[in-house]
Design a protein that fits this description.
With 113 residues, this protein is an alpha+beta fold. It has 1 helix and 5 strands. The protein has a domain of 71 residues: START domain (Alpha-D-Glucose-1,6-Bisphosphate, Chain A, domain 4, 2-Layer Sandwich), CATH 3.30.530.
Length: 113
C-alpha cells in the first residue's frame, strides 16, 4: 500500500488475488479511524464478493506498548460476526502472522544489519 496517509478519515484499498471459494473479490477497503502518535493506529478493514458488497466489516488496531527494555507491537483484528466470518478470522490470523513476521524481520534486518 504505497499511497497510505496517516490521516483520520483517509480511505484506500489493498488488492490481492481474489478467492472465489471464500466469496472474496480480493479488494480490501480501509479507512483510518484513530491515530494516537507512538501508541495506536486503527482502521476499518472491509471486503466482500464484489465492489460495494461488504460481507466482512472489521477493525484492525496496531498498538505500541512500552515494556521494560523496549516496545511491544500488538495487532488486534476485531469485528468478525457469524460462522462464516469466524472461519475468515482464522484464515486472516494465519496470514497476519506470516505477513507481519516476514515484513518485520526485513525491517529489523535493514535497521540493525
Amino acid at each position: 500500500m504505497k499511497d497510505f496517509k496517516p490521516e483520520i478519515g483517509y480511505e484506500c484499498q489493498t488488492i490481492q488475488p481474489p478467492r472465489r471459494a471464500q466469496n472474496w473479490d480480493g479488494i480490501m477497503y480501509l479507512k483510518i479511524l484513530e491515530i494516537v502518535p507512538q501508541q495506536r493506529l486503527s482502521y476499518s478493514f472491509k471486503g466482500g464478493p464484489s465492489p460495494g458488497v461488504v460481507t466482512l466489516d472489521t477493525i484492525v488496531t496496531w498498538l505500541l506498548i512500552p515494556k521494560e527494555g523496549g516496545t511491544e507491537l500488538q495487532l488486534e483484528h476485531t469485528g468478525f460476526i457469524g460462522t462464516k466470518n469466524f472461519f475468515t478470522s482464522f484464515i486472516m490470523e494465519m496470514g497476519w502472522k506470516k505477513i507481519v513476521n516476514k515484513k518485520l524481520t526485513k525491517v529489523i534486518q535493514t535497521v540493525f544489519p
